[in-house]
Amino acid sequence: MDDKVFVDGMMAKRPDDGAPDFVKLKLSLKLDEFGPWVAAQKAKDPSLEWLNIEVKEGRSGKWYAERNMWKPSGDQPARQPSRSGPPRNVQPMPNDDIPW
Length: 100
Hints:
By secondary structure, the protein is of the alpha+beta class. It contains 1 helix and 4 strands, in the order E-E-H-E-E.
């Protein structure tokens, strides 16, 4: 198992109790720490284009940010990004039932 790579300068917290349902996460970036951390990741791998970061919950219940280090092996194709827009072969809804 690879060592965990924690994200310097990033804090993830649960939303405040009164936050609307659509607020899922509070994310804070301390630029003096996060910027150099990103630069160090790029220096380690100059071909790096994306940083994938997962927010996890520690045994203590505190949330933390960890870099996802997954890379496709030579025999696996890279994951394709999800396409935007409606799924294929879906019939459009008729506009007759829309109240506005």
